Fold this sequence. Notes:
This protein is an all-alpha fold.
Amino acid sequence: MKSIFFNIVINHFKILFPFFVTHFFGFAEIAYNVYVYEMLRVCVRGFSEGKSEASKQSNSHWFSTK
């Protein structure tokens, strides 16, 4: 009885294992892409805000000297 049950479990594992692996790595890849996208979005937003602050300071200095 144990060997029959064991064979059934092993056969199901062989069938379902690739399915679980592909779904797990697919989810991991999506999560990584979301993380990278968020980090890039924060960096770009910080860069553009810094650029506008620099232009404000530059413009205010330029207007004050004229």
